Amino acid sequence: MHGPAPSGWLLVALCAATGAYCLLRMRSGVEEQRRAAGGEALMGFGMAAMAVPAAVFAPPPWAWAGYAVVFGAAALRALWAARTGTHHLHHLVGALAMVYMALVMAAAPGGGHAHGGDGGVPLLTGGLLLYFAGYVLLTGARLIPVPAMAGTSGAPAGWGDRPELARACRLSMGIAMVAMLLTM
After folding, report:
1. Helices 89-107 and 31-51 meet at what angle, rounded to 10?
2. In degrees to the nearest 10, what's the CA dihedral of 132, 138, 143, 145?
3. Contacts from 132-141 at CB under 8 Å and sequence distance 24+?
4. pTM for the predicted model, two decimal places
5. What span, in angstroms and rounded, lies between the C-alpha atoms of 76 and 79?
6. Of the candidates 61, 69, 154, 176, which lies 20 to 30 Å from 92 by C-alpha distance?
7. Radius of gyration of the chain from Cα atoms?
8. How far apart are CA 101 and CA 28, in angstroms?
9. Does 183 have pLDDT greater than 90?
């Protein structure tokens, strides 16, 4: 996950900002949005932690196992939630991708820092790259504004209830996931 320092810090900032916004979304009045925002906040902060440049901080070897356990639990939660709706499957794929990256980092020689193809299963990494690249394209297309329908309420939504910001948050995390997978 650890490429050049400037791009690593940009990735850390993007993921941390996304995680922070997802924490704000947890104040939504809609329970389903709060649950999704919690999982997305965990993903954002976890991705930020994994993207810290290796020259600045090299986590101890046990940290990668900790990441795998945390995101494994998140994957089980997403799998459980997927029984009520297929939209939770993306959270499952994201959590499993984080488990995969943590395991690759733990198995990588030299302190757990994979660089440019030094670790991972190429077919699995490629499949995840295709999935997240498609997700980014689809989510980006959904951000294109559509004309407001006549008779819709003009009441301002709270920060936790803004669907366009939630989509932008998911788009940012998808882009970050592509970047992290590319540097494996």
Report:
1. 20
2. 170
3. 132/97, 132/174, 132/177, 132/178, 132/181, 133/178, 135/90, 135/174, 136/171, 136/174, 136/175, 136/178, 139/167, 139/170, 139/171, 139/174, 140/171
4. 0.84
5. 5
6. 61
7. 17
8. 31
9. no
